[in-house]
Design goal:
heterodimer, A: mainly alpha, Rna Polymerase Sigma Factor, Chain: A, Arc Repressor Mutant, subunit A, 2 domains, B: mainly alpha, elongated, transmembrane (chain B), membrane (chain B), transmembrane helix (chain B), WH-like_DNA-bd_sf (chain A)
Chain lengths: ~170, ~190
């Protein structure tokens, strides 16, 4: 069982990841921030039940993605307020305005391309971009590594095509 | 480890992220726990008035009234138990793999829809039960017809006043859960 301090450390460590995961589910900046908070809350609550049957990393990703899926299922038929101009995609420590604007645009394009993927492709790709191995992604998704590989390759190809990386 | 040489990965990690307000999250977690505890207490306490009525009036009740009350209390107890079990299950499935979570969410929503459907039907049949109960009392205690009709009228008005908003609430929740279930089903096909 994890104590309060351990839970705090874990949350601080994973908060940036949860924030990025949230943007893959929600285009609206305010709602993405709200979803990120909901994910943090869900992770905090779930850490009390963590028994060490899996790694903390895959456990947190499972809880976060499940929260994201619930968010999509709940909001799918509600009016969309996707206002990407609200999205603050500033890059930390960047001094060159032109580079920042260009990078911002690229990030926006990447996020749009990611959100246009099917749900499983989106989840697999974002976890891969966060650095999870096939094995870990499979654990989170409930898939075998072959399935993860197929989905990931297809998703990467699709996104790179949109971003003209190929 | 992350492959920073992949341009997609590098771009993905350049996003600005929010810092969590840990204190706020802790407070919310406490509040959520209290809320769940309150809901559970309310679910159990709802049974209490029925049980108290049963105990209080038991010595004066006829066999018909006793059986009727036992029937209602039993149905309510089973229903409450089912709701509590469902609440625990909803929390537990959040820790499953994404694929299992989607499948389990569909089955939980199907259960919720079944409960709401049963609740809607029980609300619709409430006036029939009230009529059955008061006619039963009238016959059982050999009350004059006028007295029976008066009791029945008051009970029917009270039942309708209570049931109508409850029925509207159930109908709205049913529509919301049905839509949510459809959305989950659509996500399940994407996850295959």
């Amino acid at each position: 069982m994890l104590d309060q301090q351990q839970k705090q450390q874990i949350l601080q460590e994973y908060a940036p990841i949860l924030s990025r995961v949230a943007t893959s589910y929600e285009a609206n900046a305010a709602m993405a921030q709200e979803l990120s908070q909901e994910m943090c809350l869900a992770v905090w609550q779930s850490l009390s039940k963590f028994k060490g049957n899996s790694s903390v990393k895959t456990y947190i990703y499972r809880v976060a993605h499940n929260k994201g899926v619930s968010h999509v299922a709940y909001h799918a038929n509600r009016p969309k307020h996707a206002d990407m101009s609200e999205h603050s995609m500033d890059i930390a420590c960047s001094t060159n305005v032109e580079t920042t604007v260009s990078s911002n645009q690229q990030i926006q394009e990447l996020l749009t391309a990611v959100r246009n993927l099917s749900m499983s492709s989106r989840q697999v790709l974002t976890m891969s971009m966060e650095g999870l191995s096939y094995q870990e992604i499979g654990e989170v998704m409930g898939m075998n590594t072959n399935q993860v590989g197929v989905i990931l390759n297809r998703a990467k190809k699709q996104v790179k095509k949109v971003l003209n990386y190929e | 480890m992350n492959d920073f040489t992949d341009p997609l990965n590098a771009l993905w990690l350049q996003q600005t992220t929010d810092d969590p307000n840990v204190y706020h999250i802790q407070q919310r977690a406490k509040w959520e726990r209290r809320k769940q505890l309150l809901y559970t207490t309310i679910d159990i306490l709802v049974l209490l008035p029925l049980a108290l009525i049963a105990l209080w009036f038991y010595p004066d009740m006829s066999l018909f009234e006793t059986l009727f009350l036992i029937g209602i209390v039993s149905i309510c107890a089973v229903y409450t138990g089912y709701i509590l079990w469902l609440r625990v299950r909803v929390i537990a499935i959040q820790r499953q793999s994404v694929r299992d979570f989607v499948t389990l969410s569909i089955s939980v929503l199907a259960l919720k829809l079944r409960i709401l459907s049963a609740t809607k039907w029980s609300i619709l049949t409430a006036p029939v039960i009230v009529i059955f109960f008061y006619v039963g009392i009238g016959v059982d205690r050999e009350l004059p017809i006028f007295e029976t009709v008066k009791l029945l009228g008051v009970a029917l008005v009270a039942t309708t006043a209570f049931c109508l908003p409850f029925w509207i609430w159930c109908k709205r929740r049913y529509a919301r859960f049905l839509q949510e279930k459809r959305n989950f089903e659509s996500l399940a096909t994407q996850n295959r």
